[in-house]
Amino acid sequence: MDNPGVPERKILGFQLPPKVVWTKRTKADLRTGLLFLSPWLIGFFAFTLYPMLVSLYYSFTIYHSKRAPEWVGLENYLKLFSDQKFFISLNNTIYMVVIAVPLGLFASFLCALLLNLKVRGQAFYRVVYFLPSIVPTVAGTILFLWLLNPQVGLVNTLLARLGIDGPNWMADPNWAKPALILLGMWGMGGTIIIYLSGLQDVPTSLIEAAELDGANWFQRLWYITIPMVSPITLFNLITGMIGMFQYFAQAYVVGGGDNLGRPLNSTLFYSVYLYQNAFLFLKMGYASAMAWILFVIILCFTLLLLKVSDRFTYYAG
Amino acid sequence: MKKPFFLLSCMVILSIMLSACGAAKPAEPTVLRVWIQWGDNPQQIQTLFDKYTALSGIKVEVTAPIEDDKVLPALTGSNPPDILVLSGGDLAKSFYKEGLVDELSSAIKTGNIDTADMFPAPLSQCQQGELTLCLPWGTDAYALFWNKDLFEAAGLDPEKPPSTMEELVEYADKLTIVGADGKLEQVGFIPDHSWSHNDLYVRNFGGFWYNNEGTQLTTNSQAMIDALTWQQQFYTKYGVTNLQAFSSGFGEYGSPDAPFYAGKVAMMVEGEWQVGPNFIPALKPELNYGVVAFPPPAAHPERAGTIVNQGTVVVIPSGAANKDASAKLLAWMMSPAIVAEEFCFNANLPTSKKAAADPCFKDMGPKFQVFVDLMSSPNAYAVINTPLSFELNDALSSAEEAILYTGADPKTTLDAVQAEFEPKFNEMMKK
Predict the structure, then answer these.
(1) DSSP symbol at B177
(2) Each residue of B65-121: pLDDT tens digit?
(3) Is B185 at the interface with chain A, CB within 8 A?
(4) Residue B221 CB neighbours (<10 A)
(5) Residue B362 CA: distances (Å) to CA of A204, A299, B116, B350, B372
(6) ipTM of the prediction
(7) Of A16, A168, A259, B34, which has fewest CB within 10 angstroms of its CB?
(8) Does residue B38 belong to the interface with chain A, where contact is any CB pair within 8 Å?
(9) According to the model, what pLDDT value does residue A17 have?
């Protein structure tokens, strides 16, 4: 404990800041602080907190556009648990979280390692790897649909030259999600940049000391680099997981609006089904219930990751 | 000090009273807003509505196409458009149930709109019992297109399209070419080419997924099972993976490389716009093809000439500022001359019988006339819609996918859809 005079306060195992003693000065500071914060606070209350609370209320109702909502208690939540498509969408989303996020982290870490090598044209390579992430999502997705076209696409053409009969990609329910994972990995420039900045913060003194002790490249990577960038890994993992739970745009483009979830509901992700319920089936109350369940799922996963992260995250400071 | 205050109060009260008098009878608007969910050529649509401005002095601002996600917020907001043209009748009933659009009896009366002049099939997609929730503006119908050159190459009479569904299957087999590597090089017929045509097939088998009144759910009726079993055979025979791989290499819809134009598919179910000036005559003028009503099953020749209409419908948002002005504009839009002008230009079918007699439709040639004639067929139907349509159609699409692409048993799959939706449908009907 840093300050032995102040009692330690914890909630769910998380350390809280020490209790504030209210003096005239601290109250004045609070007022000033709130004043400076007010533009953000007003925006937060009006455009985030209020809609969230209203959607919580709507989740217990049948929402009508012009008439008052009908209170139905937990009915929307209970219906979800007997809705087959709800579970399909949840499964598809969890598949992406479990496969795509770690795979993306692994691939971007490897790319960052390569781009951190002192080679001629390093800046050029960095730009090349980052470029796909500035391509708009819709354009990138349409481009991938062409690349993965089973008959005339570049990928299957190259596979055919190697004697491999390429899959039907987006037309095959078994290959649709892997195709979307490939698309996601193509645009991982942002994660690479964050890893790259982390790699440059790894103290060279530690690497040199390990070299003197006879550690090979893999040992230096395993015992020094990876632990040193573990906070970055945690950050990328949490933001990647949250983003993947909300996966929507690419699936919407692939579905083309009318064919959401195709083929065979293999691209029916949680947010896509939520959108369908809210804006196509006009079941806003049901969709609000889905949104709150998603919020709780993301919250639980994030808390779990933060809790477990103590074991694999090293904060040098 | 008191006197000016008294005078000011009097003026305020007087102005409120005057404005209240004004509210009782709204002044004629100077601008009306029309939103249209489709529209490849916004300038043409605006020019059409400018004619109303010339006639009435009221400016009409057209937004076409309006994005789908803007429609619902506008209808629930305080400033919806005065007229909304939806791309299909399926949303009109959901919107009416939510109180977002008006029932149109009084608008029909105000505008003196002659509903007897409308073809019964497209009008039926707007009706719910005695209520008329929308009016059909233009419509589409589907028929069978066949490539005469490919018929000849396969040893078939190029002037004799299949006359029954069974014969169509037989012809399709003769027209399908498999390469030495086992891959498809040409296909006779793909039942869900471009998109699902289950509505047309199921009507030919004598049913639909609702009863004719739309009061009963019949997703697992014998007609539905037969229609999907009939379609499934093409995928079973040619191989799902093989057919999907073949289809994925097709050129863009509406391009010269489209599969029917390029001779990759010998027969297809398509709409009337294909024979209009923007499609086959522009993209592949040399294509040697014919058009005929989709054939019925051999056991039911009385079902010849079956079509299923769906197309644009017009609604008046319940929040429209001036209902009388909206009704007058609606009446103008529904007049035969305007219907003929708009749908001749776009090569779509008119919903007005008088408009259908306009020479401009004849000028589009005998192939277009096949579709115009089908509008008067005793077997002309429209897609039946209920407020559950969007959700049910989505489930039916998934069922169709499972049946065609995974070989799922049609009866079991449709039974599951019926079991899932029957309680929802019954609950909806009670409300």
Answers:
(1) E
(2) 998 888 988 998 889 999 999 988 888 888 998 899 999 999 999 899 999 999 999
(3) no
(4) 21
(5) 83, 65, 23, 12, 9
(6) 0.79
(7) A16
(8) no
(9) 78
Q: Is the pLDDT of residue A280 over 90?
A: no
As a whole number of Å, the CA-based R_g of chain B is 25
Residue with tokens 């899959």: A167
Q: How far is it, in rounded angstroms, from Cα B57 to Cα B30? A: 8
| pLDDT above 50 (res B1) | no
Q: Which residues of A touch B401 (CB under 8 A)?
A: 262-264
Average model confidence (pLDDT) for chain B? 91
Please answer whether residues B173 and B322 qualify as being in contact, where contact means their C-beta atoms are separated by less than 8 angstroms. Answer: no
Any A CB within 8 A of B262 CB: no
* Amino acid of residue A117: L
- pLDDT value, residue A102: 96
Residue ranges and CATH numbers for the domains of chain B are: 28-139+310-382 (3.40.190.10), 142-306+388-430 (3.40.190.10)
- Measuring CA to CA, how many Å separate A296 from each of A16, A72, A244, A291? 22, 21, 15, 9
Selecting from A67, A168, A257 the residue whose C-beta is nearest the C-beta of B248 gives: A168
**How far apart (Å, rounded) are the C-alpha atoms in residues B76 and B167?**
51
Which residue's structure tokens are 């005057």? Answer: B18
| Residue A41, helix vs strand vs coil | helix
Would you call B318 an interface residue with chain A, using a CB distance cutoff of 8 Å?
A: yes
d(CA A44, CA B249): 49
How close, in Å, is residue B99 to chain A by CA atoms? 6
Nearest to B385 by CA among B104, B55, B89: B89
- The residues, any chain, with a CB within 8 Å of residue A279's CB and separated by 6 or more, are B68, B69, B72
Binning pLDDT at 50, 70 and 90, where does residue B38 land? confident
DSSP bridge partners of B101: B317
β pairing state of B307-309 and B380-382? parallel
CATH code of the domain occupying A78-309: 1.10.3720.10
Residue A114, Cβ density class (10 Å: 0-12 exposed, 13-18 middle, ≥19 buried): middle
pLDDT at res. B31: 94
Torsion of CA B113, B119, B121, B123, to 10 degrees: -10
Give the number of other Cβ atoms within 10 Å of residue A20's Cβ.
8
Closest CA to B172 of B243, B261, B275: B243
Least confident of A149-158, A284-293, B231-240, B411-420: A149-158
**What sign does the dihedral A121-A125-A130-A135 (CA atoms) show?**
positive
Q: Pairing mode, if any, of strands B349-350 and B138-139? A: antiparallel
Q: What share of chain A is helix, strand, coil (3-state, %, to 5)?
A: 65, 5, 30
B76–chain A Cβ distance below 8 A for any pair: yes
Beta bridge partners of B138: B350
pLDDT digits (tens, 9 = 90+) for B207-227: 999 998 889 999 999 999 999
Characterise B112 by phi-psi region: left (phi > 0), alpha (psi -120 to 50), beta (else): left
Give the least confident one: A300-314, B227-241, B405-419.
A300-314
> Rounded distance, CA B291 to CA B270, Å?
9
Structure tokens at B52: 């109303």
Tokens for B312, please give them: 């644009």
